[in-house]
From TrEMBL:
Region feature Disordered, mapped onto this chain: 187-206
Biased composition (Basic residues): 187-202
Domain Transposase IS4-like: 99-201
InterPro entries linked: Transposase_11 (IPR002559)
Pfam families according to UniProt: DDE_Tnp_1
Species: Coraliomargarita algicola
Record's protein name: Transposase
Length: 219
């Protein structure tokens, strides 16, 4: 923005900021206080450059880059325990999603729900959500889209344990893999293991998209 508006900076910090970022990348425990100090310094420099830009660009520059300036100000104001924080400047809609796992507590991205047919594996719906919803709340819009795409209703949907708390959605039974009863015959136990194993293998996620997959059984 500054180069486009030909802003004359009081100081550009072209050497200071890369040096501070290099210190932040160190993972030595004894440098924790130094990394905290570097983060505060970078935040201070960003505030200085923001005020410098506003002084030099004038009202026209502020109107032209109002959205970008508002985003930067929001990042500078936010605290550690604030809600609805900005985690990425290039994609402010990124959310912090708690996974509930010890080795990887959080991931950053957006949540989506994908449904597949039980026998063929054909994807019949894919819904993305702006909010970090509980997995059970993503099932109804996913089933609604699947019904509208196929023109069919579904008697059951096989999901993982993240959907606990939902036993029936829109007349569709919600099946969550669990312990297989020993009262069943060997054939039925083998059939249940095969069905449940399909759901365990289908869970996937990426850096920008958290995907929850459900398998549908047609009625």
């Amino acid at each position: 923005m500054g180069e486009a508006e030909e802003v004359s900076w009081r100081r550009s910090y072209v050497r200071t900021v890369p040096a501070l970022l290099a210190r932040l990348r160190t993972r030595i425990n004894r440098l924790v206080k130094e990394r905290r100090k570097c983060r505060r310094k970078i935040k201070t420099i960003a505030g200085r450059l923001l005020r410098d830009f506003k002084r030099n660009a004038g009202s026209c520059g502020e109107l032209l880059y109002a959205e970008e300036l508002a985003l930067i100000e929001r990042v500078l104001r936010q605290k550690r325990h604030d809600k609805n924080k900005v985690y990425s400047l290039h994609d402010p809609q990124v959310l912090c999603i708690a996974k509930g796992k010890g080795h990887k507590k959080y991931e950053f991205g957006r949540k989506a729900s994908v449904t597949m047919l039980r026998d063929s594996g054909v994807i019949v719906s894919a819904v993305s959500f702006k909010e970090n919803l509980y997995d059970g709340d993503t099932l109804e819009p996913a089933l609604e889209q699947a019904s509208s795409m196929t023109g069919k209703s579904f008697e059951s949907v096989l999901v993982d344990k993240g959907y606990r708390g939902r036993k029936n959605v829109r007349g569709t039974e919600v099946v969550i893999p669990g312990k297989i009863s020993k009262k069943l015959s060997a054939y039925h136990r083998r059939k249940q293991r095969k069905r449940n194993g399909r759901r365990r293998r289908s869970s996937q996620s990426s850096a920008t998209l958290r995907v929850t997959i459900a398998w549908l059984g047609a009625s």
